[in-house]
Design brief:
The chain is mainly alpha-helical. It is 78% helix and 1% strand.
């Protein structure tokens, strides 16, 4: 196989991803000194920094706790309806945090039934934002940790037991260390998502860097250059904040040693839960589901009874669905193919340069939607032929979606390649298969779950992407489900957003169901 072509394609992918990042850095470095002075010396900078870090930390802790407890229940314990519990614990993946946050505000507003308990915010702006984001992104951790826990070899725990370790000691000294790479991958995804979130923090009134950047971009429309300069400066600071979890994730993944399935592997036995154990398990599932996907479904169905012009709203939502589906489908396919090429090049073509392409292509990890959109606009408007071709087109939106969510695809594809060592292809070739046939018949089937996971993650994320869609010029004023929901919610028209909310959830559920089915097989 020609090694130059995969490397060239991978370099092209990394270059496209890095272009908005470089554009943001150059824009910030060339910004007027007054913008630097106004933003960095103001009293709001410490507040933005503290709020962003606390939201990211809180969301990571919530998601990590949900993933560990949920994985332990469905893998190491048995109870009636365990498959339903898995589906329910995954269901928050289909609801965007900004929709959940808006509904939290709706059910706890003045005169609402939950106003005495919630008062619009649980424990303040920061705690509310961390809780909403953590619960909604907990499936990112849960799916990875559940798969890792299911693959653990019981022989290791039995050996620890023969050395006198108690059950709790085996959990702390054997099981949790083995889950560390999976936990690190999931937690880093959640932390960086929290740093980049715009919708939930805006709805709940939390001032973060992303919210401040969107404020600069959307309100300073008279002076586009000044708005871009100020947002680029804030984005540069946010990039510095996001670097530690990103670098920690890469370091842990380099140190991780994946254990391949052996013939003598013994899966850990699942212990049946008693009545009170089952009650506690279902209460935990309810704690994860009811404030997220359950709330969205129940309130949306209730809103349908309040619609005065339901037919027109359903028609409008259906039109937005078509746009969202097409753009998400294209973005998921582009991102998955790009992730496969980059990870394949790094894994199969040995070299420091090829290995560096994975972290470079994951640069979108640390950038929120508004910054990716801004960087793309800076690049596109800098070159006249590119501006004429891409500005205001669906292709630019799809490209921004793919850049924004490519790291999620890389996480999944990279994990799949780690479970398909090159030695398996070499064995297949000794049996007479060509290189392409060995890849098709041996490697890709092993990676199928990871490829599907990558596609699903990007598809669902693109379906609900909000800030980049709001900021980028869309062809002929096209609307997506996300922009429809946000527009109605911003105006306080809760019932009118019900059709779009239901369609967004309904067309995201099959993708997650496909992922769960593939995971079982």
């Amino acid at each position: 196989m020609n090694k130059g072509l995969p490397t060239l394609v991978s370099v092209s992918v990394a270059t496209i991803v890095l272009a908005p990042v470089v554009a943001i850095g150059l824009r910030a470095s060339r910004a007027d000194g007054e913008h630097w002075t106004r933003l960095l010396s103001s009293d709001q900078l410490p507040t933005l920094l503290t709020n962003t870090l606390l939201v990211a930390l809180g969301a990571s802790l919530v998601a990590c706790a949900c993933a560990l407890v949920g994985s332990w229940i469905v893998v190491r314990r048995t109870m009636p309806g365990r498959g339903i519990a898995v589906a329910l614990l995954t269901s928050p993946l289909v609801v965007p945090p900004y929709l959940v946050a808006q509904l939290w505000m709706e059910i706890s507003g003045p005169g609402k039934p939950l106003e005495p308990w919630l008062g619009g915010r649980i424990g303040g702006h920061i705690a509310s934002s961390a809780l909403v984001i953590g619960l909604c992104t907990s499936p990112l951790c849960f799916l990875v940790v559940r798969a890792a826990l299911d693959r653990l070899d019981r022989n290791h725990e039995d050996a620890a037991a023969t050395l006198g370790l108690s059950a709790n000691e085996r959990l702390l000294r054997v099981v949790l260390p083995a889950l560390r790479p999976a936990l690190a991958a999931g937690v880093c995804l959640v932390a960086l998502y929290a740093c980049a979130d715009f919708g939930a923090v805006s709805a709940l009134g939390t001032r973060t860097f992303t919210q401040a950047m969107f404020f600069e971009l959307s309100l300073n429309l008279q002076d586009r250059s000044a708005a871009w300069d100020a947002s680029a400066i804030l984005g540069s600071v946010l990039l510095l904040i996001a670097m530690p979890p990103y670098l920690a994730d890469r370091w842990l993944r380099r140190k991780a040693r994946y254990e391949h399935v052996r013939a003598d592997r013994r899966p850990a036995s699942a212990q049946p839960l008693g009545f009170f154990g089952q009650l506690g398990a279902w209460l935990f599932v309810a704690v994860v589901v009811l404030p997220t996907s359950g709330l969205v479904l129940l309130r949306s169905l209730a809103f349908l009874t309040e619609l005065d012009d339901g037919a027109a709203l359903w028609s409008r939502a259906s039109s937005a669905l078509g746009t969202s589906f097409q753009w998400a489908l294209a973005a998921a396919t582009v991102a998955t193919v790009g992730a496969l090429v980059v990870c394949w090049t790094a894994s199969r073509i040995r070299g420091r340069f090829q290995s560096s392409l994975v972290p470079l292509a994951s640069a979108g990890y640390a950038l929120p939607g508004p910054l990716v959109a801004l960087g793309a606009l800076i690049v596109v408007t800098s070159v006249a032929p590119i501006q004429k071709l891409l500005y205001g087109s669906a292709a630019l939106l799809v490209l921004v979606y793919a850049i924004r969510f490519l790291p999620e695809a890389i996480q999944a594809v990279d994990a799949g390649l780690a479970q398909a060592p090159r030695s398996l292809e070499e064995v297949a070739r000794t049996l007479g298969l060509s290189r392409s046939r060995s890849v098709t018949l041996v490697t890709l089937p092993i990676m199928s779950s990871s490829l599907l996971a990558a596609w699903v993650f990007v598809f669902t994320a693109s379906m609900r992407e909000l800030p980049a869609t709001l900021l980028l010029p869309r062809p002929d004023g096209s609307r997506t489900l996300a922009t429809e929901i946000w527009g109605f919610a911003e105006d306080g028209h809760w019932a009118q957003m019900a059709p779009s909310s239901i369609l967004l959830v309904a067309f995201s559920v099959p993708a997650v169901a496909l992922l769960l089915r593939q995971d079982r097989t």
